[in-house]
Design a protein that fits this description.
single chain, about 450 residues, mainly beta, Jelly Rolls, 14-stranded mixed sheet, six-stranded antiparallel sheet
Length: about 450
């Protein structure tokens, strides 16, 4: 039992998780027992060797900032425990791993309509092993930590549990709640490190096609933001930043405020499942789409990907936008001719910016993508920015059943920002999702 307790205290020291009482207890054990001191020396040697053999320092972090996914050795706390020479022998790697297994672990709390890539074993509720890369195709995963911190990850997302109070997000969105006592919980990304100071905050990781682009917003409390080429800054409630090229921090994304949805309190869509939707996953053709800096691209394939409510990250948004100033149009290829009689449309507000969206449309059908028959026409209301954290509505439009392979939607009137001049370039058609049904 004494050895088990010693191992737990040593490992907590490596994780920088010792409280004052535990540090004093470790000091007493080392002072009283030469075998304990020998075990401590061997553990330090193994831990130091693992640190030296770990991955190279990512470019966005300076030497003093620490490495995402690993902790620097807390030398000051080592000195506070005992000034003992380090000798390399005896203590095995398996012993250290056995200690790790006995420590409190993060665990998967809930899975909500989670879909994993083909060939992936995915995750199930329960303990979550560290050091394994996971990829979530769609849906949500909620992870809980020993400190009480919770993280909700939204697919598509790639993430890795690096230590018991940290998570690395390589792509996708994460919403974090860290209560009192969980201060110091962090999210590491390819663009920077985000350290909780008692708060709720969101992180979105994407790409501009060449380099990572990371967004963060503080919903409650405050966080520290650390990048390799900029001084650490502290953000408080309502503040947000984009981490762009070489760690540069921007206050706007494409001249618009940075906004992220808080998935901790956001309801999961109750709309029809993809299996009932003929358009789900089908290819979409369009004469053009909006392309903006820092990964803000909005191709037509977003219209049938099953992701809703203006979700996603830079380089992987969930909605389609027409080119600047254009109404736009697109065509869904159902692959096989099918009798259809209903479409369901979800509008976009362009991430609460409110400068894009479909106001009026006409719908057509075709068997050969050359000759089109009119199916129906209609209007869509704008998404109220105040409802951004709620589920966006779908609007159904029915018509007599007709056999088609191609369904074309032509935007006849688009939305624009009410406080911008009529000739402002940032306006145009857009849509979040189209669903097509037999009846």
């Amino acid at each position: 039992m004494k050895d088990d307790r010693l191992d737990l205290l040593i490992h907590a020291l490596f994780e920088d998780a010792l409280g004052d009482d535990e540090r004093a207890e470790l000091n007493r054990l080392l002072a009283a027992d030469p075998d304990a001191r020998a075990r401590y020396r061997r553990a330090v040697a193994v831990h130091g060797a693992l640190i030296r053999r770990s991955a190279a320092l990512p470019a966005f972090v300076d030497d003093t900032a620490g490495v995402p996914g690993q902790r620097s050795i807390p030398w000051k706390k080592f000195a506070a425990v005992a000034l003992i020479p380090i000798a390399i022998f005896g203590f095995g790697f398996n012993d250290l791993m056995a200690v790790r297994k006995r420590l409190p672990q993060a665990e998967v709390l809930t899975l909500t309509r989670a879909v994993w890539p083909e060939g992936s074993r995915g995750l199930a509720p329960g303990k979550l092993a560290a050091g394994t890369l996971h990829e979530l195709a769609s849906g949500m995963v909620e992870i809980g930590y020993p400190s009480g911190a919770r993280v909700v990850l939204e697919g598509p997302c790639r993430f890795n549990l690096e230590s018991k109070e940290a998570l690395t997000v390589l792509h996708g969105r994460a919403s974090v709640h860290a209560p009192d006592g969980a201060e110091g919980f962090r999210i590491d990304t390819p663009g920077g490190r985000f350290i909780d100071r008692g708060t709720e905050f969101g992180v979105a990781v994407g790409s501009d096609g060449r380099k990572p682009v990371v967004l963060t917003e503080v919903f409650k409390g405050e966080i520290d933001v650390r990048t390799g080429s900029a001084s650490d800054i502290r953000l408080v409630r309502g503040e947000s930043r984009v981490v762009a090229d070489n760690g540069k921090l921007l206050e706007t994304l494409d001249e618009s405020p940075v906004r992220l949805a808080n998935a901790l309190h956001r309801p999961v869509s109750s709309a029809a499942s993809p299996g009932e939707n003929l358009a789900f996953g089908k290819p979409v053709l369009s004469p053009g789409y909006c392309i903006r800096p820092h990964g803000s691209v909005f191709p037509p394939d977003n219209l049938t990907d099953g992701r809703l409510d203006d979700s996603g990250v830079p380089g992987d948004w969930s909605f389609w936008l027409a080119p600047d100033g254009e109404d736009g149009e697109f065509t869904v290829d159902l692959i096989t001719p099918t009798a259809v009689s209903r479409v369901s449309l979800q509008n976009t507000s362009n991430r609460t910016i409110g400068d894009r969206g479909t106001a009026g449309f006409r719908l057509f059908g075709s068997l050969d993508n050359k000759t089109f028959l009119p199916l129906t026409e209609g209007t869509l209301p704008a998404i109220d920015p105040a409802d951004y954290d709620k589920e966006f509505p779908f609007h159904d439009f029915t018509f007599p059943a007709v056999e088609v392979r191609y369904v074309k939607l032509v935007v006849t009137a688009h939305l624009r920002h009410p406080r911008r001049p009529a000739d402002h370039p940032c306006q145009g058609g857009g849509l979040n999702e189209i669903r097509i049904f037999e009846r």
